[in-house]
Amino acid sequence: MALKCVAIDDEPLALELIKTYVAKFPALQIIQVFENALSGAEYLKNNAIDLLFVDVNMPDITGVELVRSLEHSPMIIFTTAYKNYAFESYELQALDYLLKPIDFKRFTAAIEKAIDYHKYKNATVETGNDESIYVYAEYKMIKILLRDVEYIESMGDYLKIYLNGIDKPLLTLMTMKKILEKLPDNQFARIHRSFIVALNKIKSIHNKKVQLNHAELPIGDAYSAFINQQKGM
């Protein structure tokens, strides 16, 4: 099924260019375009879409303000003639930031990110000797072997995934609930509202704390049954 797209830009020529480019991708479908940002914002409040192309500089509200106002944000690609909004686009987890006039090659790269990210959000755990999941981090899809995961830490809307042999954790926009759906429950367990551990990386459990190779993590009161489960194994 094609990704449902909306484009919002106060420049008619910019909208026509986006429509022309989108038409070259069978995986995309433009369902609405808006020259008025407020009309576009109202439409997005009442309709679910997959991908939004939105201009940063518009007379009523900026594209950044529009995206921040959305309760459920789709994938975002900002378009603008200015370079000084790159930080805001990163802060809002935009897939890309395209400078006008938009080059088709550059547009294609942004669309490939969107398609990959959509696949990632709907991916399931692979089976086989090298079970893995895909994580979207640093604007690209990263394959993670489950055997390499030591623990996962929640940081609000983000997760830090700590891997053996890598000093810096991977940072990805995902909830604990979502990552648990992707992890096999016979290999991973939630021990705290902020932590998931790989069971085969546990060295010891003592005083409501789990000792791993590179960290000591607390066991939350709501997860105290975890201790008894490990005793019974």
Describe this protein with a few key phrases.
28% helix; elongated; Rossmann fold; 7 helices; 15 strands; 233 residues; OB fold (Dihydrolipoamide Acetyltransferase, E2P); 2 domains; alpha/beta; 5-stranded antiparallel sheet
Question: Can you characterise this structure?
Answer:
There is one protein chain. The chain is of the alpha/beta class and 233 residues long. It folds into 2 domains: 119 residues, Rossmann fold (3-Layer(aba) Sandwich); 100 residues, OB fold (Dihydrolipoamide Acetyltransferase, E2P) (Beta Barrel), CATH 2.40.50. The strands form 4 sheets. The protein has a 5-stranded parallel β-sheet with strand order 2-1-3-4-5, with helices on both faces. The protein has a 5-stranded antiparallel β-sheet with strand order 10-9-8-12-11, with no helix packed on it. The radius of gyration is 21 Å and the shape is elongated. The termini are far apart. The relative contact order is 0.08.
What's the SSE blueprint?
Elements: E1 3-8, H1 12-22, E2 28-34, H2 37-46, E3 51-55, H3 63-69, E4 75-80, H4 86-91, E5 96-99, H5 104-121, E6 132-137, E7 140-145, E8 149-155, E9 158-163, E10 170-173, H6 176-182, E11 188-192, E12 195-198, E13 204-206, E14 209-211, E15 216-218, H7 225-231
Helix content: 25-40%
* Strand numbers in spatial order across the main sheet: 2-1-3-4-5
CATH class annotation of the largest domain: Alpha Beta
> What portion of the residues fall into strands of 2 or more residues?
25-35%
Quaternary organisation of the protein chains: single chain
Classify the fold: give the CATH topology of the largest domain.
Rossmann fold
Poorly predicted runs of 5 or more residues: 124-129
Mean pLDDT: 87
H and E string: EHEHEHEHEHEEEEEHEEEEEH
* Number of domain units: 2
